[in-house]
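Q: Protein A?
A:
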Amino acid sequence: MDQYDVAIIGSGPGGYVAAIRCAQLGMKTAIIEKYSTLGGTCLNVGCIPSKAMLDSSHHYEDAINHFEEHGIEIPGEIKVNLEKMIGRKQSVVDQTTKGIQFLMDKNKITVFEGLGSFKDATHVSIKKNDGKTEEIEAKNIIIATGSKPSTLPFIKIDKERIITSTEALELKEVPKHMIVIGGGVIGLELGQVYKRLGADVTVVEFMDRIIPGMDAALSKELTKVMKKQKVKFALSHKVKSVERKGDKVIVKADDKKGQEVIFEGDYCLVAVGRKPYTEGLNADAAGVKLDDRGKVIVDEHLKTNVDNIYAVGDVIKGAMLAHKAEEEGTLVAELIAGQKPHIDYNLIPGVVYTWPEVAAVGKTEEELKEAGVDYKVGQFPMRALGRARASMDTDGFVKILADKKTDEVLGVHMIGARCADLITEAVTAMEFRASAEDISRMSHAHPTYAEAVKEAALAATGDRALHI
């Protein structure tokens, strides 16, 4: 029987990063993945392919709506070749997953293909696709089995017309009318992809606003922008049935007055979140406890109730974000090696990759009000930037929340072009407990979108934003 210092079950961002860090720290490491490619949901059917589709559809939208204004004339009709677009997406996925395999080989990590399950607290059974079973022993085990799309109890996902994000990345045609159940990140991103490609899109959301976990100002602005893009929203609607009739899907919901509303489309994307994936893990055999939602219970060091078993990523508490999982994978590897790493969960940024992009870190204005914190606000519109006007990306703003007494930055919320990259400036500043004045006194290259951060910081320090 092969013996390892660490065995990791699951090869998503949390799992493969944990494996690399363990190997870097001198541990004999194994990783177990039930699918034939590494990378988990993120690389195969999540973050990477969805961004490929978002970028391709964005190019198409620019070509039909904006090229002429830029003085670019294309003779003939501009058409979508969905098959080719999805083929390009798949090539990006293939290249990325092969990159993870390269990293495993480079770091001398043993990869096992098969379903990993606990035999006991130090032994993992691996059921391979050919039916054979192999067993390994490990001093430490990290659970990194991730998550899968959630649904509602009364919805039957048929993977043809009533679909999840996985199937939405593989459609053979552009829908005529896509009904999206859920106004969160996944629903909005994929809804925008197909809206750009020519579909009518209706987002049905139970809450009274989209992206409800983010600052309300971001929700309001993104709703306004997406309405301009002709996306329809049915907020405060409780879906009660989803039924397929041939090539049609009928969605029934009650609005906030309790009146029934019927939506009819040819596709329904169910995007109501994700749930932890622990099927087949056999956690009981190792004595590992799960909560009532199926998440693995861990302490502040991400250790389970069993001393040598840890868990990271979507399978445990907290935001289901690939970069959170990576930080946790690194943390556990370093803890096992006897180091003293830490994660500040308040400074894990959240991003929505629509266009304009939405990004945030730290506390929302609603959270500060609820906590009774005395704060001040600095906000600056993207339309006031020369760079934004030059690129015709003028929607959005940057909003900085700072402590009224100390001026320490408590939260940064932004919507606009390239905010997914821009948010890292805020994370860096907040990691060093910067004040709004600190940011306002740093030189920002001109012309850039980043100038909006400086201007918002100036506004937060007092009524002194320069360009508005």
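Q: Protein B?
A:
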Amino acid sequence: MSAKTITARVLTAEAFAPFGDVIERSGSPDKIINQGMCGRHHDLARLDFGSGRAGISLFDAKARSLPHTVDMVERHPDGSQAFMPVDGVPMLVVVAEDDAGQPVNLKAFVSQPGQSINLHRGTWHGVLAPLGKPGRFVVVDRIGDGDNLEEFWFPEAYIVDAAES
């Protein structure tokens, strides 16, 4: 099987907006709380759990490296899914547009220190891929009845190469 190549780029809120939210601190806090000792950066992601409820899980993910093979993507039709690195390990984030139920136009991003992501409901995405070393992640996603997972296996794999500088 031959492979198509895509180049990872630095994760930015603007470039990632069609697929989800980049959760990061920017600017001054929206509110100062806790006796003036804490700045709150408020409502940074559009969480969507359909008929389910929000759940918080911890994921332990094995390290990946670039170049990285993508032969499958998945999506969650019933809820959004947020990934927040606990160890500060960067992650490779692969996403795709949807064309009549099939992922197309794959894009790859590499997170920067202090960044987390929230994938919008139904967004095609690659598997959790911390780069360089294993990572622990807090994951906020839908807990509820029904199967909230669709997978798509590509007939031809994609290779993600190193991020542009």
